[in-house]
């Protein structure tokens, strides 16, 4: 649990500080800069916590089974349920992740088509590569990652 000082910041000061925070994160153009900033600002535990939260919401949007999410991310069922409830009133991260899931569903559709076209056992196809592609597709459908 994060410990926050009981001394409150004025709301106008908070807005100024938040605008600085937004400017620092918003003006990063590449992934390396963004990672450096997050590594400077957040502890390893905080980074893991944020990544798991995003992953839980993402996997819930992909309609992955609760038990699979718990097993894959090493979180409790209660945590997954908490984020399922939070998603109902979210106006920030959920729309962004929904857009990502839509795009991924399109790619998954094309992967399925390619898997059916280049199926294992078809003459002239590398069977090993075809089986790997088929198994990878099944894993994506089951686990969502």
Could you characterize what this model shows?
With 145 residues, this protein is mainly alpha-helical. Helices cover 73% and strands 0% of the residues. The protein contains seven helices and no strands. The chain has helices at 11-26, 31-41, 44-61, 66-73, 77-87, 93-117, 127-143. It is elongated. It starts with 10 loop residues before the first helix and ends with a helix. The mean pLDDT is 82.
The average pLDDT value, as a whole number, equals 82
How many strand units? 0
Q: Ends: how far apart? A: 28 Å
Provide the low-confidence segments as ranges.
none
Major beta sheet summary: none
Number of separate helices: 7
Radius of gyration based on Cα positions:
21 Å
Beta content = under 5%
The shape, in one word, is elongated
Task: Give the class from helix and strand content and strand pairing.
Answer: mainly alpha
Q: Indicate the percent of residues in helices.
A: over 70%
Helix and strand element order = HHHHHHH
